[in-house]
Write a structure and sequence with these properties.
TIM Barrel, elongated, alpha/beta, 486 residues, three-stranded mixed sheet
């Protein structure tokens, strides 16, 4: 069941944090519903069984403090980095990846400070594939080192200028050093999907033989499709025995789908950032990945991650980089669990799984139903009247619904307007002298009368059609068939 709505401030869920950047759901109310969000049946969206799939066994490498620091608006001072790191740890991410200590002296000091926090999440740093960077990284006290070098012809020619033989030999040297220091080590190619496949597999095979803990695939420019991801990861899975990490940019909108396909094909680790911030359009968003994965395996995701911490975590990062949470953000956006259309509201009020695949209470959030618009259905108004403690018959509810719909054609309605109409209509049912539903100008009154007449005419037309259908001479065989289907 959805948690009881907070009538005083419209806050959201058990943590009392507003849903969305502005925390304001004018025209909406959080609603309790009649049944649990998930029907008692097998999950039709569970992944297809596959011995290579890690959809139900994956780890998150959270890169807000590395990739996220490359976001256009990002500037994280030490205090902010520590605050974000603690919030990520509270959420339960497996790894926290930090900016290279070689980037600046302050980056090195920040790396050391976070390593000394004693967090449960393992701390990684991301460096270039050379010995100087590797030694500097190890000295900070991190749990692991992520090394990377470009392998596409674009980057070999225009970035570092090294050939495949040099890359392979240097990678082996760095890997052996980091392992000798008792640290985890990952080797990743950069721009993997524009790299020569033979070159990639040659390098990955060589580093796997010297005991690298993970190899990484990076869609650095966001060009890959889910099918390409599946094929490459599946191929790599047949070449290496180590873990496979994947890093997907979102330039073409495929980051979440690519991450999911990578897990299906045998990848073990997914790179994310909070709200997806990063270079250009960013990478796989942590919340978006959680939305995808909880549908696939709710028990695994809920047992591993503190999902109710997501909203607080996103608010911290959004404030730090001075952006609003998008209205359509996964899980925490203003509209994520908001329902407006009449037929949607009716079904949601009976059983939320009709129009929700994710249970908002899993994330400490609430669902909202809009009942102050021309799309309002009478079931939403009935629920609101019950919340207000007003007893009315279904016919009376339908009548006041038409008045709300007509008024919404005259002017925008706030939630207080809709409540006022419901209360006043209820009062007028037994009052000797009727009160106006709302204070309207002369012009608004004319528009309201016209809109109400049109809606009443439409309602009468529907009633006539329904009665005509009921009275129609339907052949017995057809009627029996219809009753059997019903």
């Amino acid at each position: 069941m959805c948690p009881a709505p907070d009538e005083s401030n419209g806050t959201n869920g058990t943590n009392g944090v507003a849903n969305g950047a502005n925390g304001n759901h004018e025209g909406y109310r959080a609603f309790q519903t009649n049944q649990a969000s998930r029907p008692n049946s097998n999950n039709p969206y569970a992944p297809v069984g596959d011995f290579l799939s890690n959809v139900s066994k994956f780890q998150i490498i959270e890169s807000t403090l590395r990739e996220g620091e490359q976001f256009a608006n990002a500037f994280f001072d030490t205090e902010t980095k520590i605050k974000i790191a603690k919030a990520l740890d509270a959420f339960g991410v497996d790894y926290i990846e930090l900016t290279s200590p070689a980037a600046s002296e302050q980056s090195r000091l920040d790396c050391e400070a976070i390593c000394n926090l004693g967090l449960k999440s393992k701390i990684l740093t991301h460096v270039r594939c050379n010995m100087n960077d590797a030694k500097l990284a190890v000295a900070t006290g991190v749990d692991g080192v992520d090394v990377v070098i470009g392998t596409s012809s674009h980057l070999m020619e225009h970035s570092h200028g090294k050939d495949i033989t040099y890359i392979k030999n240097t990678a082996i040297e760095v890997i052996e050093y980091v392992k000798s220091q008792g640290k985890e080590i990952r080797f990743s190619s950069e721009d993997s999907f524009r790299s020569d496949l033979v070159d990639l597999l040659t390098i990955y095979s060589a580093v796997d033989k010297v005991g690298v803990h993970r190899v990484g695939i990076a869609d650095t420019v966001g060009c890959a499709t889910p099918r390409q991801v599946y094929d490459l990861v599946r191929t790599l899975r047949g070449v290496v025995s180590c873990d496979i990490e994947t890093h997907f940019h979102n330039d073409t909108g495929c980051a979440i789908a690519n991450a999911y396909c990578a897990l299906e094909a045998g990848a073990t680790h997914i790179d994310t950032s909070v709200i997806g911030i990063g270079e250009r359009n960013g990478i796989t968003p942590l919340g978006g990945l959680m939305a995808r994965m909880i549908v696939a395996d709710r028990d695994y995701v809920k047992s591993k991650y503190n999902l109710e911490k997501l909203k607080e975590l996103e608010d911290i990062v959004a404030e730090a980089v001075e952006i609003n949470i998008p209205f359509n953000n996964y899980i925490t956006g203003f509209c994520a669990f908001t329902h407006k259309a009449g037929i949607h509201a009716k079904a949601i009020l009976n059983n939320p799984s009709t129009y929700e695949i994710i249970n908002p209470t899993d994330f400490g959030m609430s669902r909202y139903v809009h009942f102050a618009s021309r799309l309002t259905g009478w079931n939403a108004i009935k629920s609101r009247a019950e919340q207000l403690g007003l007893e009315m018959t279904d016919e009376q509810i339908k009548a006041v619904t038409l008045k709300i719909k007509a008024m919404a054609d005259v002017r925008p309605l706030a939630i207080d307007d809709a409540d006022s109409i419901i209360r006043t209509y209820h009062h007028n049912l037994s009052a000797k002298q009727e009160k106006p539903l709302l204070e309207l100008s002369a012009e608004e009154k004319k528009k309201f009368v016209k809109a109400e007449q049109e809606l009443n005419a439409e309602s009468e037309k529907k009633d006539l059609e329904r009665k005509a259908d009921e009275q129609a001479d339907v052949p017995a065989a057809k009627k029996q068939k219809t009753e059997a289907v019903a």
